[in-house]
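This is your field. Pick holes in the following sequence-structure pair:
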Amino acid sequence: MTSNLLLVTADAMFAKRLSANLEQEGYRLYTSKGKGEAVVRADEQNCSSAFLDLELGEKFVLELGRALRTLNPTVKLL
């Protein structure tokens, strides 16, 4: 069974490297740069975990984490 993961970052190179490595391990990684897109993607793809890049700002990450937990209280935030 493939797990769907969400990565929220503005760093395209980081997203590309992480995606390649995780896909080799059998995961499906979805990337997003913004809050709205991330929430929609997490909901559509039923993501079990979300990697939130602190480079986007602590306030942004806290707000996004809360929004993701509203959708899915069991989502793992990393």
Remarks:
- The helical segments are 12-24, 35-45, 58-71.
- The chain has three helices and four strands.
- The CA atoms of residues 26 and 38 lie 21 Å apart.
- The first strand starts at residue 4 and ends at 8.
